[in-house]
Amino acid sequence: MNSSIFARQFLAMISLGEILSITLILFSVIDILGSVPVVIDLRKKNGHIQSAKATLVAGVIMVLFLIFGDAFLGIFGIDVGSFAIAGSIIIFILGMEMVLGREFFKSHPSQSKTASIVPIAFPLIAGAGTLTTIVSLKAEFDDLNIFLGILVNLIFVYIVLKSSTWIEKKIGEGGIGILQKVFGIILLSIAIKLFKENVINLV
């Protein structure tokens, strides 16, 4: 009886619309398709990329930040709304980076055996932009739906990492470039929306 009540409460908390929105937002920020050339380069240098390990580590980082992000911010006396505004600025810069093709957030791929963790799991997947976005989303969406959105993205990330070479051959550099521009525009729109909503709440 208790289990059925719990199941109903659990299902009541799930919003497919929210999950879809969160999934698309995180998909745009993580931009794993746009990172395929980096992944392929690391695979060539190291001979092998541990896709499952990289996905798991990135997932742990994102979930920990989802759960403890507020407490972490509280140490510095920062509220989620203010962090969301800062996050919207970072998301805006990420979008500009993707649209203009300029690199504002520079990463230096490692040639060591830890390439599956650095830079793939962090900061390529669970980087500053992703973590900032997760905390920013908490100002608008339920934690459970954010978690499910993260899970959907991790599944997609794993699939892309496993088939990165095949994807590059099929899409080509031109196709990846187009995807980056499209998702860059989406990020710019998301950043403006987040900024407007949270600035109004702070006034």
What features would you highlight for this structure?
203 residues, mainly alpha, 0% strand, globular
How are the elements arranged and paired?
Layout: H1 2-13, H2 16-30, H3 36-46, H4 51-75, H5 80-100, H6 117-125, H7 128-137, H8 143-162, H9 164-202
What report would you give on this structure?
The chain is mainly alpha-helical. It has one domain (35-40, 50-202). The chain contains 9 helices and no strands. It has helices at residues 2-13, 16-30, 36-46, 51-75, 80-100, 117-125, 128-137, 143-162, 164-202. Helix 4 (51-75) packs across helix 7 (128-137), helix 4 runs antiparallel to helix 8 and helix 5 (80-100) crosses helix 7. It is globular, with a radius of gyration of 18 Å. It starts with a helix and ends with a helix. The model has no long low-confidence stretch (mean pLDDT 80).
Number of strands: 0
- Characterize the main sheet: none
Tally of alpha and pi helices: 9
Low-confidence stretches: none
The helix fraction, in percent, is over 70%
Question: Kindly state the mean pLDDT as a whole number?
Answer: 80
Strand content: under 5%
The total number of structural domains is 1
Structural class: mainly alpha
Terminal Cα separation, in Å?
A: 46 Å
Overall geometry comes to globular
Give the SSE string.
HHHHHHHHH
* Computed Rg: 18 Å
